[in-house]
Amino acid sequence: MPVPLIKKKTPMSFLDAGERKTNFNEVALGYTKEEALREASRCLMCPNKPCVAGCPVGIEIPAFIKLITEERFEEAYEKIKEKNFLPAVCGRVCPQEKQCAAVCTMGIKNEPVAIGRLERFVADYAETLGADKKNSARAGSGRKVAIVGSGPAGLTAAGELAREGLAVSVFESSHEAGGVLIYGIPEFRLPKKVIKKEIAQLRDMGVEFNFGHVIGRTKTLKELFDAGFEAIFIGAGAGLPRFMEIPGEDLNGVYSANEFLTRINLMKAYRFPEYVTPMKNLKNVVVVGGGNVAMDSARCALRMGAEHVYCVYRRTRDEMPARAEEVEHAFEEGVDFRFLSNPDLVEADGKGFMKGVRCLRMELGEPDESGRRSPVPLEGQYDFIEADTLVVAIGVSANPLLLETSPGLKLNRRGYIEIKRGTFETSIKNIYAAGDIVSGAATVISAMGGGKRAAREIVKCLTEHNISDERK
Ligand code: FAD
Ligand code: SF4
What we know:
Blueprint: H1 17-20, H2 33-40, H3 50-53, H4 61-69, H5 73-81, H6 87-93, H7 106-109, H8 115-129, E1 144-148, H9 152-163, E2 167-172, H10 180-183, H11 192-204, E3 208-211, H12 221-226, E4 231-234, E5 240-241, E6 254-256, H13 257-266, E7 284-288, H14 292-303, E8 308-312, H15 324-333, E9 336-338, E10 341-348, E11 354-367, E12 373-386, E13 389-392, E14 396-397, H16 400-404, E15 431-433, H17 436-439, H18 444-462
Parallel strand pairs: 1-2, 1-4, 2-3, 4-15, 6-13, 7-8, 7-13, 8-9
Antiparallel strand pairs: 5-14, 10-11, 11-12
The structure holds flavin-adenine dinucleotide (FAD) and iron/sulfur cluster.
The site of flavin-adenine dinucleotide has 43 residues, from helix 9, strand 2, helix 14, helix 16 and helix 17.
């Protein structure tokens, strides 16, 4: 008898909203083995594999899901790792609803398969089996490659290159590896131990990490070549915060989301005084923006004890770029959304601090180049929000430090590194780049996809072999 089709995806357990907003514990609890088996059984194993084409690193999704249905979890893990060095990270933060799950055949008439939740299950379960300790690096060729930046782009390039036997050294300006994964995305969405475990595997493969190295300042790209590196991969991200450039933005109480999140996540202000970075007492907080960064800032503010957190966004909920699940969670936790609204003035209290934000009401006009309907101001119509803190989460740009000290490195008109289509090589021979420093702010998996393809080109250029077909 045919097995009946399960139309809805298997629910995952989450911490209760009332409880979770008082702490930084992980909100999404992951599937149990039984839940994973049930969800895996929903996959139709489509021969044309649309989900694989929807994944920027090309994970063989039906193949790993089939291995789950057969309870061959270690092999499922190996299958994912052929293409993805950070499965426990991606299973937690990838916007699957816009990628693999968006094109899942099940999603045409029913709910798509919960691919990300299954990926996370496999990665977490593999740890319990000890399967995450294995690595399969080729014998070393002795040829040296430098990686600038240890975000998802740099880590993926490092893993691909080490696996192919190249000697890889990562140069990272911060004191910890992980880029946005470690300083931006909060513990309650992505526990730091998950990233550290995946980075430890790269170390086991021979990748060397050098911290406190600001390339462009402590060493130039030329000095890296002089030190014997034959190729350089730049994955320096886009970490320069943008501001709204409105009056009062220089007042005390106004933060860029980068600073706000770095203080809380990387410097662990939420564990003050055990960690020495303090955070001011938050009462009424306004966060501006509608992306993941804004959701993380708003939800961190709640957990840091704020009484009221507003999220001001100039479009509506439908146009928000944040992951759907994070928006849902922010609502559940009590973030007060003010849609069709845009700050145009931060009001001062006369003592150098802010006392509130004036917001101009908006309406939606014609679609812009992003395809979303653009916000149009309703002249003269204002709201005032009393607040002691404003967190600006409206986007980032490329940090100019490395770019300005690297003569010959061509930038595009948006100020990001220009690469040759298909090869990821920059205007300087043997220097490659990918991730946010090329695309502008994007996603973890797109940065990883770029890092992987650039690494493939470096391998082709420095060694006699191509990365084997099954790993491409
Ligand atoms: P980064 O992660 O920015 O890493 C760059 C690294 O390079 C950093 O460690 C930096 O210190 C280092 N560096 C910079 N300059 C130098 C230099 N001169 N020398 C040496 N090192 C240098 N994406 C998702 O898919 N899902 C999410 O849920 C999600 N949430 C996000 C939440 C926040 C708060 C933020 C900020 C971003 C989020 N993103 C999310 C986007 C995603 O994290 C980025 O697109 C991704 O991290 C880009 O990877 P990257 O490797 O290009 O750069
Ligand atoms: Fe399974 Fe969906 Fe991929 Fe088809 S498209 S193989 S149903 S995950």
